[in-house]
Design a protein that fits this description.
Structural class: alpha/beta
Oligomer: single chain
Largest sheet: 5 strands, mixed
Strand content: 15-25%
Order of helices and strands: HHHHHHHHEEEHEHEHH
Number of helices: 12
Radius of gyration: 38 Å
Strand order of the largest sheet: 3-2-1-4-5
Distance between the termini: 73 Å
């Protein structure tokens, strides 16, 4: 049953607004129909005739006639709808964050979505995942950091970076370090054809050990070229033997050698007295990343050693020597781009100590 039609009286201002709404090409269809209903009702049309002209049910016409009569133009807007009450609230979010601050269950290394949902008891695992994604919390990714507690960090870092950015005139700057215990592993490897026709390259998990070698390397900062030699051990005597070969490569040249704080690199005053053209520069404690040869060791691992197989220690050494020769043919210096090196503490992060 249609309610009794309400009489609609339009002010000039409201009529202009509604007529403009009907003329506008961007007006939504729902707003256009409501405006036409009110305009036609103000002209004295009946509810049924308006419904037939606008193309809606009579009850819809009656609804908007009453809404405009009671509330004016504001009555033509949709009322807020309460909708369904959310199952999870901000209290739930706080419970998840509080749980993440606690150690995971005994026997587990880290929290996972299912573990969090199980510990909460009344929260679905899908909501846990959505919450973690919205807050950009990654339970799998791991970051490592190393803080230097060297009281002379600033002076040592400035000394090393100064050699990179503005090396002394007529002097050679070298970055020296060792890559110890490189294993000569023999693995079965090659291409494996799968039943679906695809061919994959890989290697087997079983292997044979054929010994290890320690690689001493010196990177010339100006050219990026490498001087390398092999040794069975990593003692002071092997280090000084390598330095003797390096100094022989650059006779009568001033050498500035950048080293980390390994014990064998220090307390070599007698050798330095015998080689007055050589000066050692040490990176700050726990800051060996300042040594550019570490970058080259990473390149060596990725391009030459990973995924290879060796039947003897000699084959491994020859393989590394061949890579060094090939690398030197196309070597380019590393460009130091870091403008400032600070001794910055880890701030704003909670470190849980179990």
């Amino acid at each position: 049953m249609i309610p009794e039609a309400r009489e609609v009286h339009l002010s000039r201002k409201d009529r202009k607004v509604l007529e403009a709404c009907c003329r506008s090409p961007v007006t939504l269809q729902r707003d256009l129909k409501r405006a036409r209903i009110v305009l036609l009702a103000a002209d004295g049309r009946s509810t049924r005739s308006i419904a037939k002209e606008v193309g809606v049910q009579p009850r819809i016409v009656s609804l908007w006639r009453h809404r405009y009569a009671d509330h004016g133009l504001e009555g033509l807007q949709d009322k807020p709808r309460p909708g369904k009450q959310p199952i999870y609230t901000k209290t739930t979010d706080k419970r998840i964050l509080k749980l993440l601050d606690k150690p995971p269950p005994q026997g587990f290394a880290r929290w996972t979505g299912p573990l969090l949902a199980e510990a909460l008891g009344d929260v679905d695992v899908q909501y846990v995942w959505r919450f973690l994604r919205s807050h950009k919390i990654d339970l799998v990714a791991r970051k490592s950091w190393c803080e230097s507690n060297d009281p002379n960090f600033t002076a040592k870092a400035a000394d090393v970076v100064g050699l990179y950015v503005a090396p002394p005139a007529k002097a050679i700057v070298l970055c020296v370090d060792e890559k110890p215990s490189i294993q000569a592993l023999e693995r079965a490897q090659g291409y494996l054809k799968l039943p679906n026709g695809r061919a994959l390259t890989g290697q087997s998990h079983d292997y044979k050990r054929h010994g290890t070698t320690t690689l001493f390397a010196a990177l010339e900062v100006a050219t990026g070229k490498i001087i390398a030699t092999h040794s069975k051990r990593r003692r002071r005597v092997e280090f000084l033997d390598f330095m003797n070969s390096v100094t022989a490569t650059f006779p009568n040249r001033k050498l500035h050698v950048i080293l980390d704080n390994l014990n064998t690199h220090k307390k070599n005053e007698d050798w330095l007295k015998a080689h007055p053209n050589v000066q050692f520069h040490f990176t700050p404690t726990s800051a060996s990343w300042l040594n550019q040869v570490e970058v080259w060791f990473s390149i060596l691992q990725g391009q030459s050693l990973s995924g290879t197989s060796f039947k003897s220690l000699k084959q491994l050494q020859e393989h590394i020597d061949a890579y060094v020769n090939a690398y030197n043919d196309r070597a380019e210096p590393f460009v130091w781009t870091k403008k400032k090196v600070r001794q910055r503490r880890v701030k704003g992060r909670r470190i849980t100590q179990l």
